[in-house]
Design goal:
Layout (H helix, E strand, L loop, with lengths): L1 E2 L6 E2 L5 H11 L1 E4 L5 H23 L8 H15 L5 H7 L5 H4 L2 H10 L3 H7 L4 E4 L3 E5 L24 E6 L10 E4 L31 E3 L8 E5 L4 E3 L8 E10 L8 E3 L5 E2 L5
Parallel strand pairs: 1-8, 2-3
Antiparallel strand pairs: 3-9, 4-11, 4-12, 5-11, 6-9, 6-11, 7-8, 7-10, 12-13
Helix pairs in contact: 1-7, 2-6
C-alpha cells in the first residue's frame, strides 16, 4: 500500500518540539518544510550543476553522448547493466550517479548541516545540542532513465557500521515530483532492528542487496520543494524512485550524530567547523 499525501509527515521547522517528536517517533521520518534559506539551496544547486558538467568527460569516454541528459541517462543504464564488471571503480562510481570525492568535500555543501545545526527542532531530532556529520556527505546526480542509479530498499545503518546512532538528512536541490522521483520510505519500519543479513556491498553495482519491506506502508516523498529537508532514522527503510523526467535530479544527504554517539571515520564538527580525523587505535 502506498500513501499519497505527505501532510502527516510534514512540519514547519519552527513547529513545537512535541509535534515533531510525535511524527518522527511514530513514522521514522519527518519532512521539515522550508527549513533551508534560498541562498544556501541556490549555492549548492549551482555548484552541483557545474559539477555535472565536470563529470561529462567520464560519461563520454564510454561512447555515451552527453548533449541530451535523457540520452545520457539511458546510455549509462545500458552500459552499467551489460558491462559493469569491466568498468574502472572510479568510473562506475560516477556512472551510478555519485559525484567525485573532491566535489562532496566542498565547503559549499557543508553550509547545509551548519544551518540545520542551529535549529532547536533539528537538535531535538538528533537528540543533542552538539552535532557532527560524517564526511564526506553523499551528493548525487540522477539522470533521466538511469535506472541503475536507483538504490534498492535499505536501512542506512547497514552502510555505516563505523557510526553509532545517527539521523539521515536528505536534501533535494530541485523540485521533486513523481516524474523526477526522489525517495520512498516505509513508515514505521524504524521500529524494528537492522534487517539486512546478506553480503557486503557488491563490487559490480555498489548497492547492498534489497531488504524486504513487506508489511510496511510505502510513502513516496513527493512533492518536495527546494529548501525542504527530510529527516529519517538510521533504521528507516527507504529506496530511490526512478527519474522519468527530462531533468537531472540533484540531492545531498548527510549522516548526522550527536555527542552521545561516535564515528570511527572522518567527521565534521558543526560547533567548530573542523574536520576531525579518526583517532589511532
Amino acid at each position: 500500500m502506498s500513501s499519497t499525501s505527505l501532510d502527516r509527515l510534514t512540519c514547519a521547522p519552527s513547529a513545537d518540539l512535541a509535534e515533531i517528536d510525535r511524527v518522527f517517533s511514530a513514522e521514522g521520518v519527518v519532512v521539515l518544510k522550508n527549513a533551508l534559506p534560498d541562498h544556501i539551496v541556490r549555492s549548492a544547486r549551482e555548484f552541483l550543476n557545474v559539477a555535472v558538467s565536470e563529470v561529462e568527460p567520464v560519461i563520454a569516454r564510454h561512447g555515451i553522448p552527453t548533449s541530451s541528459v535523457s540520452e545520457a541517462g539511458t546510455g549509462i543504464a545500458e552500459l552499467l547493466k551489460s558491462n559493469t564488471s569491466k568498468l574502472e571503480p572510479a568510473d562506475r562510481h560516477v556512472l551510478l550517479g555519485h559525484f567525485p570525492l573532491e566535489t562532496r568535500l566542498d565547503p559549499i555543501l557543508q553550509d547545509i548541516p551548519k544551518h540545520m545545526s542551529t535549529l532547536p527542532q533539528f537538535q531535538h531530532l538528533v537528540g543533542s545540542e552538539e552535532l557532527f556529520v560524517h564526511m564526506p556527505p553523499t551528493a548525487r546526480f540522477v539522470m533521466p532513465g538511469n535506472l541503475q542509479a536507483a538504490v534498492p530498499p535499505h536501512q542506512d545503518v547497514s552502510y555505516n557500521k563505523h557510526l553509532g546512532p545517527f539521523r539521515v538528512m536528505w536534501v533535494p536541490l530541485g523540485q521533486i515530483d513523481r516524474k523526477c522521483g526522489g525517495m520512498a520510505v516505509y513508515l514505521k519500519s524504524h521500529q524494528q532492528g537492522e534487517v539486512f543479513d546478506g553480503p557486503n556491498v557488491a563490487s559490480t553495482d555498489g548497492w547492498l542487496d534489497a531488504v524486504d519491506p513487506d508489511g510496511f506502508e510505502r510513502q513516496e516523498l513527493v512533492p518536495l520543494s527546494p529548501g525542504d529537508v527530510v529527516i529519517m532514522s538510521d533504521r528507516t527503510i527507504h529506496e530511490s524512485m526512478a527519474n522519468t523526467s527530462d531533468r537531472v535530479r540533484l540531492s545531498v544527504d548527510f549522516r548526522v550524530f550527536g555527542a552521545h554517539s561516535h564515528s570511527d571515520k572522518h567527521y565534521l564538527d558543526l560547533q567548530t567547523g573542523d574536520i576531525v580525523a579518526p583517532a589511532d587505535k
